[in-house]
Amino acid sequence: MPFTAPGAKTCFERVLSKVLPDPTPDDVVIHVTIESLRAFFDYEDPNHPWQIMCHILPEEPCLFDIAGFDPNAHVSKRAPCETRIKVLWANFRGDDPKPDLGFALWERYHWIRPGAVKKGFAREASDPNHDRALLKSKVALWRLLLSERNNRADRLRNMYQDQYMKWHLESVTVPRRSFIRPELIVELSVPSYPV
């Protein structure tokens, strides 16, 4: 199918080339403090980089209408597909009671290898003058935060790949369903989901 609109092919090529940045190199050692761990994972803090990025995004979607939509209202799993897409849009923006999906999208671009932090802990433990209680607290907090991060990533994968994409495919293949525009995948008012 040829691209007819000016810039459409360039835009589509950019979408296809959107990938995650390279992961932290294996030889990197990351030293953390309790304060830095808490600050990085406190994504509800208005000064968190994710919150700042959210304020830059458009308030409303660019490719579909949300007039009359309340992101806090309960929506049935049997609701029309377009309504469920709006709920996911609110989730991806972090505009619902559980803002973790939006943070998980942002977090994918700021992923730190757990091994790099563990190396930092190992170096700290090898110092004979280290504070054992403090190191133990940091390790415990890191494990808790890492578990939460993994849960967010799993939930994001489930919501985006297993549901969002499935609904798009269903809308094309199931008769009497209104067609969901595939442009929603590249909606500008939410962080993009890299391939």
How would you explain this protein's 3D organization?
By secondary structure, the chain is an all-alpha fold. It has one domain (27-186). It is 52% helix and 0% strand. It contains 7 helices and no strands. The radius of gyration is 20 Å and the shape is elongated. The two termini are 22 Å apart.
The major beta sheet can be summarized as:
none
Count of distinct structural domains: 1
* Helix-residue proportion: 40-55%
Question: Globular, elongated, flat, extended or rod-shaped: what is the shape?
Answer: elongated
Structural class: mainly alpha
Alpha carbon gyration radius: 20 Å
Number of strands: 0
Give the N-to-C terminal Cα separation.
22 Å
Low-confidence stretches: none
Q: SSE string, helix = H, strand = E?
A: HHHHHHH
Strand content: under 5%
Mean pLDDT figure = 81
The DSSP helix count reads 7
SSE diagram, text form:
Blueprint (H helix, E strand, L loop, with lengths): L7 H9 L17 H8 L7 H8 L24 H13 L6 H8 L6 H13 L5 H42 L22
Helix pairs in contact: 2-7, 5-7, 6-7
Quick overview of this protein structure:
The mean pLDDT is 81. The chain has 7 helices and no strands. It is 52% helix and 0% strand.
Which key terms come to mind for this protein?
195 residues, mainly alpha, 0% strand, elongated
